[in-house]
Design brief:
The chain is built from 13 helices and 7 strands. With 430 residues, the protein is an alpha+beta fold. The strands form 2 sheets. It has a 5-stranded mixed sheet, with helices on one face.
């Protein structure tokens, strides 16, 4: 399972720490007399910092998406890192340098983000680089930069260096693999939830179908009864009331059937602020009893989504927020553009539904999206709303996040992709 391409931003952030490590380790080794010429190492470290800054700031525009594609961007970063690491090890006694094991990190990253045979090509490139340096040093065609330890491999300093290299390799490798495991677990959990919701939807659609068919016969019978009691105003009124009630049941059954049946979301460029305004108009004044509604709508770009589905999701979140404020409070809907400081997709757009209600206990935060989990069963809650909301937003390439403090309120955040960026990624990757 390939990880999402937005992880390239995480790779850039990680590289700043690596650059700091290069300068610190080089300075320490020079002061301890392990290396006699630190200048080449400083130059390589400066080069890494320079191209990392380039990736950092070019990632804010369309270069990373339209010029080479997200995957090619990651491939280029890995290749540059391999060359930089090979040069660093060459200028620091490559055959005896204990940090030679750091090449394994690039293999893990390649396996995480690259498809097909590209991870194997990365492994081949690393092997050829190291092998070429060793061969050229053996032939005497290039200069050797040996490390200078006082008593060779038995030196306490050398043993400490080997231990530091091994320990850091083990811990960073565990961090990488654990991050992969967490992502795969989340993906499997979402897949299982979608399967459950699909089965539930088919069941509900079948029930709605079975309800709709007898209604037609009952309505026909009432119509004939109405013709026979036309002279009795009281009975006629009763018949009309029953006909109106059956029509409401029929409309509800058809809506449930249409909603529950599997159907795709029609993605298009959607004005998120307009969706928020339309949702508030649906709430109506009766639903806002003792609740003050506020909006904080920023100037955000169109998002990739289905306007009617987004309206349905926001309506559901607002109903839940109102239910969480039985004694009144404030319901706030805000839209904003996520910047570089957010650990999200590049320039994603968020819409938040915040309330000042009873809040959600920490123990329930991980369960609120599960089908049939509800804390409002006595008031008619089914536990299906938030699960459906998450599934629908996921189909639009977004996600829902929640944070809450008991007795202070809750904030549900829907994160969506900008419409322009989605079109560019589709053109490059597909």
């Amino acid at each position: 399972m390939k990880l999402p391409p937005e992880g390239a931003r995480w790779l850039v952030s990680l590289r700043f720490g690596a650059c700091a490590g290069v300068f610190l380790v080089t300075t320490a080794a020079w002061l301890l007399g392990v290396i006699s010429q630190p200048l080449p190492l400083y130059v390589v470290g400066a080069m890494v910092l320079a191209y990392n800054l380039f990736f950092r700031y070019s990632g804010r525009d369309a270069w990373a998406i339209t010029a080479h594609g997200v995957e090619r961007n990651i491939l280029l970063q890995i290749l540059l890192d391999l060359a930089a690491l090979a040069l660093l090890l060459y200028f620091a006694g490559l055959p005896q340098n204990p940090f030679l094991s750091f090449f394994v990190f690039h293999m893990i990253i390649a396996g995480m983000y690259l498809r097909g045979n590209l991870p194997y090509l990365i492994a081949a490139a690393a092997t050829l680089m190291v092998g070429a340096i060793m061969l050229l040093e053996y032939l005497g065609w290039i200069r050797r930069f040996d490390l200078q330890f006082p008593t060779g491999v038995s030196s306490p300093l050398y043993l400490l260096t080997v231990f530091a290299a091994l320990a850091s390799t083990l811990w960073i490798a565990v961090y990488f693999t654990t991050a992969i495991r967490r992502y795969v677990d989340r993906a499997h959990a979402q897949l299982r939830q979608k399967e459950k919701l699909l089965g539930i939807g088919q069941l509900v659609a079948g029930i709605a179908h079975e309800i709709a068919n007898p209604l037609d016969g009952v309505q026909n019978c009432l119509q004939r009864i109405g013709e026979t009691v036309r002279d009795d105003p009281r009975l006629t009124e009763y018949v009309q009331m029953m006909v109106a009630a059956l029509e409401r049941i029929e409309r509800t059954a058809k809506r449930v059937q249409a909603f529950a049946l599997p159907h795709g979301v029609t993605l298009q460029a959607t004005d998120l602020n307009a969706v928020v305004e339309a949702t508030l108009s649906l709430l109506g004044p009766t639903r806002r009893n003792r609740v003050q509604v506020q909006t904080e709508l920023k100037d955000v770009p169109p998002v990739q989504g289905d306007p009617y589905t987004l309206q349905e999701v926001l309506f559901n979140l607002c109903i839940n927020a109102l239910a969480a404020m039985p004694r009144g409070g404030t319901l706030t809907l805000r839209t904003r553009l996520l910047g570089g400081g957010d650990d999200d997709q590049l320039d994603s757009v968020a819409v938040e539904v915040a309330d000042t209600g009873v809040g959600i206990p920490r123990a329930n935060l991980e369960r609120i999206f599960e089908p049939f989990f509800t804390t409002r069963a006595e008031s008619g809650g089914t536990g299906m709303g938030l699960g459906l909301c998450r599934m629908l937003i996921s189909e639009m390439g977004g996600r829902i996040e929640v944070r809450s403090v008991v007795q202070q309120g809750a904030v549900f955040t829907v994160v969506l992709n900008p419409a322009a960026a989605c079109r560019q990624i589709e053109q490059v990757l597909f």
